[in-house]
Design brief:
Layout (H helix, E strand, L loop, with lengths): L1 H22 L15 E2 L5 E2 L2 H7 L33 E3 L4 E2 L2 H11 L3 E4 L25 E3 L4 E2 L2 H7 L7 E2 L21 E3 L4 E2 L2 H7 L7 E2 L2 H4 L6 H4 L13 E3 L4 E2 L2 H7 L9 E2 L5 H7 L11 E3 L4 E2 L2 H11 L3 E4 L23 E3 L4 E2 L2 H7 L7 E2 L22 E3 L4 E2 L2 H7 L7 E2 L1 H5 L18 E3 L4 E2 L2 H10 L6 E5 L4 E2 L9
Antiparallel strand pairs: 1-2, 3-4, 3-5, 6-7, 6-8, 9-10, 9-11, 12-13, 12-14, 15-16, 15-17, 18-19, 18-20, 21-22, 21-23, 24-25, 24-26, 26-27
């Protein structure tokens, strides 16, 4: 009886410790090239990304907040943060450049502003910026990732093509084909065949060596066809067009559509994979069949060179046989020669979003600029400047914004839709109102909440509203302190660079 009592006491004491150990299964290192959005924890603190949140709150039971308003000053948040000093500038809708996205998130918490675009603010009006005439003598400092989400050969080409749009250089991690340029690759040997017909030591090496190019993984048989066949390569099929579907369990524990597909996807692999009894894969099959997918069309291409109707169906294939995403859009014929146009004259219709993440003026431009890279057209929502082209904007919405083209729009949605394919972003409303003449004490104030206390002991939403009252009272009301009258601030918070 005493032993049983001791055991129960031990369990009661040990349970919190067990929970703590369970919660402490969190990352010790977060990749420096990670580009996750800042997050709000259940402790009402802002973190650079979810990885940093798990790392800094290890064992404390802090999770991702389901309520986004938890980190909003209007809801009583103190806007506390654990931001790093990483230099990755972003521009806010207040026209200020912030050190990184996390620092901007602190101001979003305080003021309710938003992100205007990636990269530093270009405070020169976009239509007045100096643009190059040609780039023949320009330094080859590319590839460059622009704030419009497109990749350019160099800075000069970026300024030439986007003249008047205020596009600036941003971190390479924000563009699809430059995302892995500086990635440190582990020395794991998993031979990979690239869509350029070359064999690489692994996928990471393939992407880092093709910085700025659309090169993706394809079945190894494609690369071996151009080489001298060896005895091992003779048994590797190059395709399985007429093979009947017979679910096959491999010795690697994965499920293939047929024995032919098993050989195709493991061709050139270091480990030998063979057909085994299907019962060994029964548990995997039951687990994967829990994935339920819709038939919504948004095609993606897998590393098995097969087109899947949507990302969910590819996730099912990943679960069954380890197939990964090669690129968005339909797969193309790898061996078919595709003629490239020398010049494009017909540039009509809406811009086109390519599977390399870049936007092109027309289908002809896409083929010309990406000759030999097997880039295909994908739905507009997958590219940054075309994401809102087909969006339905609320006709009754009256959230007026000033665009970088110095025009006032009914809403940000309308601004982006009306400028499909262009890099037009939100700038402070005062830029668009600079030409208007206000009489007397009439003035349009921004709606963000950055309270100030007046000498009349009244709290005003921001300094602009205090200035209005100062004008009406003929300089009788001045600013007493920053913050509310109940909770004054000793100093003005400054999370921006300039």
């Amino acid at each position: 009886m005493e032993r049983l009592l001791c055991a129960c006491v031990f369990l009661v004491i040990a349970l919190p410790a067990i929970e703590s150990v369970r919660d402490s299964s969190c990352p010790r290192i977060c990749a420096s090239h990670g580009y996750g959005d800042p997050v709000c924890g259940t402790d009402a603190v802002i973190y650079p990304n979810i990885c940093e949140m798990k790392k800094k709150t290890c064992g404390k039971g802090v999770k991702l907040s389901a309520d986004p308003s938890l980190c909003q000053r209007s809801s009583g948040s103190k806007c506390e943060h654990k931001c790093s000093s990483e230099k990755d500038p972003v521009c806010g809708t207040d026209g200020r450049t912030y050190l990184n996205r996390c620092m901007l998130q602190v101001e979003i918490c305080r003021l309710g502003i938003d992100m205007s675009h990636l990269g530093s603010c270009n405070n020169i009006s976009a239509h007045r910026e100096n643009c190059p005439v040609d780039c023949k003598q320009a330094p080859q400092d590319g590839p460059i990732c622009g704030s419009d989400g497109n990749v350019y050969k160099n800075t000069c080409q970026m300024k030439l093509i986007t003249c008047g749009q205020g596009v600036v250089r941003t971190n390479k991690k924000y563009c699809q084909t430059t995302r892995h340029c500086r990635e440190s690759c582990w020395r794991n040997a998993r031979p990979t065949c690239g869509s350029d017909g070359k064999i690489y030591s692994n996928v990471c090496r393939m992407k880092s060596k093709n910085c700025g190019k659309h090169v993706f993984e394809v079945p190894m048989a494609y690369c071996q066809e151009g080489q001298e066949r060896t005895r091992s390569s003779l048994v590797c099929p190059s395709e399985c067009p007429n093979e009947p579907e017979r679910p096959t369990c491999g010795s690697d524990g994965q499920i293939y559509k047929s024995e032919c597909e098993l050989k195709l996807l493991n061709c050139g692999s270091n480990k030998r994979v063979s057909k085994v009894d299907f019962e060994k894969c029964r548990n995997r099959l039951q687990k994967c069949l829990k994935i339920k997918c819709s038939n919504d069309p948004d095609p993606v291409c897998g590393t098995d060179a097969r087109t899947y109707k949507n990302q969910c169906l590819l996730n099912l294939a990943t679960c069954l046989k380890g197939v990964q995403l090669a690129h968005l859009g339909n797969c193309t014929g790898l061996k078919e020669p595709n003629p490239c146009p020398d010049h494009c004259t017909d540039v009509g219709g809406e811009p086109i979003c390519g599977s390399d993440g870049n936007v092109y003026r027309s289908q002809c431009d896409l083929k010309k600029e990406t000759c030999g890279q097997l880039v295909v057209q994908v739905p507009a929502q997958h590219c940054r400047t075309t994401a809102s082209c087909n969006e339905s904007c609320d006709a009754n919405e009256r959230q007026f914004v000033c665009g970088s083209d110095n025009k006032i729009y009914r809403s940000e949605c309308q601004m982006k839709r009306d400028n499909c394919g262009k890099h037009i972003y939100v700038v402070p409303l005062k830029r668009c109102l600079a030409g208007f003449i206000f009489r007397g004490c009439q003035k349009i104030c921004p709606d963000y909440y950055d309270p100030v206390c007046g000498t009349d002991n009244m709290t005003y939403s921001n300094a602009c509203f205090l200035e209005l009252e100062n004008c009406r009272s003929r300089s009788l009301v001045q600013m007493k302190n920053m913050g509310t009258c109940a909770e004054p601030l000793n100093e003005i918070p400054k999370n921006y660079l300039y």
